[in-house]
Amino acid sequence: MLTHSEATIFMAHRFNAPALGISGHNPQNLRHILAQLRRRRYELISIAELFRRLRNGEELKRAVAFTIDDGYSDAGLVAAPIFAEFDCPLTVFAVTDFLDGQMWFWMDKIAYIFTQTKRRELSARLGNEQFQFSLESGAGRAGWRALVDRCYRAPKADRLACIKELSRTAEVELPSQPPESFRALTWDEARALENRGVTFGPHTVTHPILSALPAEESEREIAGSWRHLRSQLSNPVPVFCYPGGRSHDFSEREVAVMTRTGLWGAVTGEPGNLRSGLSRDATDQWYRLPRYLYQDTLTGVLQCVSGIERIKTQLRGASAS
Ligand SMILES: [Zn+2]
Fold it and tell me: Ligand 1: distance of its center to the CA of 221 in Å?
C-alpha cells in the first residue's frame, strides 16, 4: 500500500468535445474522480509543489498531480475548467512548434486519413514493410492505431514517405494547418489559462523521440522548447516531459542537457508511484519521474494512487521472470 512518503502523477492527452469532433476522456468521469480524490483526502498538488517537497526532502503525503501532454485545444476548453472546479492544479506539457501553429502531429494525420477516406481499402509502405487495410469493418477503421505504433520508432523519412503514400492511396489531402479536432492551444489561450492557474512545461519543439536524434538536435529540442515557453508565458515550470516517455526514449545525454539548461527534472510515461527514495540524495531520479496513464474510471485511478497498481505490476513481473 501507499505510504505517506509517496505520490502519484497522472498523464492525460485528450478530452471529449463532440461538437469539435474531439474524442478523449469523459469530462463527467473526471469530475467524479476529482470529487472522490478530494473526499478521500488525497492532496491534489502542482508539479512545482511536488518538486519543492522533493528538494526539501519533505514527505510526499499521498499527493496526486495531474498533467496533460502535447497542448491540444481541449486541454483548455474541456479539461482546465473541470480541474479549476475542484481547485486541482494542472500542468500542460507543450510542444512549442505545435502551439506556434507550425505543425500538426503525424499520428493525427494518419487518424485523419483513415476517418476521411471514401476508399474501402488502404495500403502503405513503411520502410520494407507493406501494410494493407480493409475498411469495411470497424476493426479496419481502427487499423490506424497499429500503423501509428509501427511509425512511432521508424526513421522520420520512412514515416513521412508512408504518410504521403497513404494520403495518396486514400485520396485524402492533408491540410497544412490541423483541422479543428487536432489543433493546439494558441499562445493567447495558453496565457489565459496561465492567468487562471494552469502551469506549462516544455515537451520539445517538434515531438521527436530524443534518443533517436543526433546530440545537437536533441539539445535543440529540449533547450529550444524551454526557451520558447519562457518567451511566450510568464511562469512556466522548469520540468520537462519526454516524447514517447519510455525509458529507452531518452538517456543520460538528455538528462545532462536538462541539468545544464536549468531544468529541475522530467516526467516519463513509465508507470509507477514516486517513492520516498527520490529525496535530495537521488536528484538523478528527478529526471525519470514515473507517471500513470490517466484512466477514465474511478477504480483505475484509485488503484494507481493507492499503490495497488504498482503491486499488480510487480506481481506480473515476478510471474514473468
Ligand atoms: Zn507527447
Answer: 13
